[in-house]
Amino acid sequence: MRGFAIARLALFVTLCAAPVAAPAHDPHGPKQSAGPGTGYAFPLPEPGSYLLPAIRSAAGGSVLDESGRPHDLMEFLRGRITVLAFLYTRCGDICPTATLQMSRLQDLAIKDRQLAGRMHLVSMSFDPDHDTPSAMAEYAAGWRSTEADAPPWHFLTAPDWAALAPVLAAYDQAVDAKPDPGAAGGPLYHIFRAFLIDPSGRIRNIYSLDFFDPDLVLTDIRTLTIDPGEDDRRMPTER
């Protein structure tokens, strides 16, 4: 637990001191920039000044919470605005950066108690062989805020690969094993995808790591509280 906290602090200091892109998972794997910039050449839009049309319905699937209790993933994707991100705890580059951004998002939400009560975060592992419920609980302890007003942050895993496969397919989450399990950055190739899901279980935005910035995501969340989605006439765009 202490190790995760130290790693989190080290990553935070590194990103603040030198806001440059982290290395991709593998030069032969999917091409993807490794992180969002901390500044913008343009101001963020005002919440509610734009639409986030429904892209498609979110998908469920068999998952386990940190206590090992079985659930359907959809139980975590309805009733509140959800930010769902896929990761694995053995990842050495993209996932720690993305999880730090999730942590920053949680910290920003704490400042608005009413908004925090309308949202939650979900981190879903795609490494069920290693990321058992207890492993996810230990990982969560290094990231999740203990503030009473923090939005809930759930850390989930799948019972096995058979249960995980349809979930990954539904969210177009590419994952593949590296030839060398001891390769730098972790044993799996993957891209990063995070999903903004409204309380009705509809995907309203999809983020690559380039756009997974806490201020931007929080602006989108505020927009959903203003526009719950009655007007879905515009064509969706993926970030």
Short description:
With 239 residues, the protein is of the alpha+beta class. It has six helices and ten strands; from the N terminus they run H-E-E-E-E-H-H-E-H-E-H-E-E-E-E-H. It has a single domain, classed as Glutaredoxin, CATH 3.40.30.10.
Describe the structure.
GO terms for molecular function: metal ion binding. Residues 52-226 form the Thioredoxin domain. Cu cation binds at residues 91, 95. The protein has helices at 2-17, 94-110, 113-116, 133-141, 161-170, 214-226; strands spanning 56-57, 62-64, 70-72, 81-87, 119-125, 153-156, 175-177, 188-190, 194-197, 202-207. By secondary structure, the protein is an alpha+beta fold. The protein has a single domain (56-228), classed as Glutaredoxin (3-Layer(aba) Sandwich). The protein has a six-stranded mixed β-sheet. A two-stranded antiparallel sheet has the order 2-3. A two-stranded antiparallel sheet has the order 7-8. β2 and β3 form a beta hairpin. α2 (94-110) crosses α6 (214-226). The chain is globular and about 45 Å long.
Describe the protein's topology.
Layout (H helix, E strand, L loop, with lengths): L1 H16 L38 E2 L4 E3 L5 E3 L8 E7 L6 H17 L2 H4 L2 E7 L7 H9 L11 E4 L4 H10 L4 E3 L10 E3 L3 E4 L4 E6 L6 H13 L13
Parallel strand pairs: 4-5, 5-6
Antiparallel strand pairs: 1-10, 2-3, 4-9, 7-8, 9-10
Helix pairs in contact: 2-6
Pfam families: SCO1-SenC
GO molecular function: metal ion binding
Family: Belongs to the SCO1/2 family.
